[in-house]
Design a protein that fits this description.
Blueprint lengths: L1 H20 L18 E2 L1 H19 L1 H19 E3 L2 E2 L2 E2 L4 E2 L6 H23 L3 H15 L3 E3 L2 E3 L4 H18 L2 H17 L8 E2 L5 H17 L1 H21 L8 E4 L6 E6 L3 H15 L2 H12 L14 H15 L5 H15 L14 H16 L3 E3 L6 E6 L5 E6 L4 E6 L4 H4 L24 E4 L4 E2 H6 L1 E5 L5 E7 L1
Length: 492
Amino acid sequence: ENGKSARQAFVACWRFVQGWLQHADPVSGLIPRNLTSSPFWNAQDSAADNYPFMVLSTYYTDRGLFEGRMLDMLRAEGRYCNRLGHLPDDFVFATQSLREPASPLDKLIFGASEYAKDGLLPITELIGPSPWTERMLELLDEIWRHRSISTEVGKLPATSHEVGGELMQTLSRMYWMTGKEEYRQWAYLLADYYLDHHLPTLEAELDLDDHGCEFLGGISEVYYLAAYKDPDRHRKWKPVIHRMLNRILEVGRDEHGMFVERVNPRTGKQLRKTLTDNWGYDYNAYLVVAQLDEVPRYRQQIAAVLSHLPHYNDYPWEGDIADGIADSLESGLNLLNRIPEPQAVSWANHMGQRLLAKQRDTGVIEGWHGDGNFARTALMFALWKTQGTYVRPWRADLRLGAMREQDGTLYVSVEADWPWSGTLHFDIPRHAEFLHLPTDYPRLNQFPEWFTVAKKTTYDTDQGPLSAATLRSGLPLSVTPQKPYRLRLRKH
């Protein structure tokens, strides 16, 4: 059953890429912002939300496209779109030139921040260091090279919750990955600005939806960084962080614990009572703090929310568009990865089908940059159903499914409509091996790890003991319609 669901989701991602590539500019190879009124590529939409998930879709379903046109688009974007140093701007297909004679610095920084965090960071999280990582690092360095806003803590590139939150997330993870000290200090500067001088819960308006939710995720990542690398700073921030999170819990939720879109933290009034599809992104921060500071109450409240998810089976997230369903499902999957609540499993299965039903037969979903978010979450859904396993070469008739028992035993099934031969691959502890994180703390737009093969470990299987090195290199296998492949695997 998981194999059927995973096949459906992988096929949806594959078709999404084919549908959008039919609309690519024949000269530059870049895709438009949308298919109705924006025949240009831009950083905050085309590059941040759509293109990266074409990259990841092809990584699993079409290696030729992944190594060909996807890399070509990255090179074209850097060649055609850079406006100020490495900061990109809008590129118009009709004129093969930048859309405006000049653009304000804050627009360029916003676009680069969106591209880095929403798009290039998830690619790096899932596949490891790559040319897309190199592009992210040059954007990050260029953003800070052009910081110009004077604040109480010095010059910053931005002070909005959205851009500040995105930068805190990207800087934190890239510090762990690269060890570059500037990234840690820049992340601390942003956190000091908010926690010491502009605490969101002392303001008259706090957005818990797109894109204010970026702040809670960002501040929790810098807090995590300080807990491991600057204990004095962690102690100083601790009471402030706890007061802020507690106040948001008091004023920002419905009766089942689901966050609303906007509140006035001073008065407690809910300014926009529509539920935010980013509810799980907000709760990531609580789970981080619960783990760091041993606050079981936060984890218990998240578990309660997960148990109530079937109440929201048919809630019209963002008016029932695919992007809203995708964000809500991603919210749940990332938390479900840490808190395996049975009610949340049934909800996630239902939401996965709601999401996949949004795709048109052309492969396009709704014809705007949010289609990439559909693919991002469809891919997350597929990898949940395969427990992170995947096959090469992929084919549309393949049904790869997996499940894991409470004792850690993994069961894998591969079926096909026609004879197929290839290799079965397993996920690894990406948080440790790619990003060098001390633990796999919850964070926005990560791809959850389900079953991972650790180094220097032996596994008992139906085929006898297998080493981690053997599993990591890929297990050769063949299937026919009459003879599916089955594997049972457990740590020795």
